[in-house]
Amino acid sequence: MDLTSTIAYAGLAVAALLCLWRVLRGPTIAERMVGLDLLVLVVVSGIGVDIVRQGESVNVDVLVVASLLAFVGTSLTARFIEGLGSDDG
Amino acid sequence: MGDAVAAALLAVGTFLVVASAVGVNRFDDVFCRMHAATKAATLGVILISLAAALRVDGNTVPKLVLVIVLQLLTAPLGAHLLGRAAHGRGELSPRTVLDELADADPPDGRG
Fold this sequence. Notes:
The complex is a heterodimer. Chain A is mostly helical.
């Protein structure tokens, strides 16, 4: 279990860097938001890996809240994009 | 036995999340990237939650089921909202071959 979770942590670190690269590159707001959304999912996965590794359940509440926050951020950004004009962003 | 299954679920789930992060960088426009980010990452988070459910005590399992249900509900909703907004701004790749929403919602920034 230790080996598997260490490999999982390494993979998730690479995934988080790839998401950050997408957020930095853009080029549009929607694409940055896709990257941020996936970054939150990577964080949720990391907390899940920690739960598996420790066998403790204290962080499960954080898991629920983080996965909800991703949705709130995405829908707010979608509303924001719809309100923009066609020449900016 | 349970630990071995949890380790296998963890490995597959992590692979899916990493694969979707690769897809977000490799694909062409926002719609293809959403395709990678929602489907693969949702299944990855579900598998990791199942692995966690095998490792914690029974009282915590309903919360992990809640995580899975919320993920299944919110990922398509968020992707739909974002895709609709991006389509209204005409953020399609020039290599797009079929745009079935073009009649209802022309992708020229007027939507």
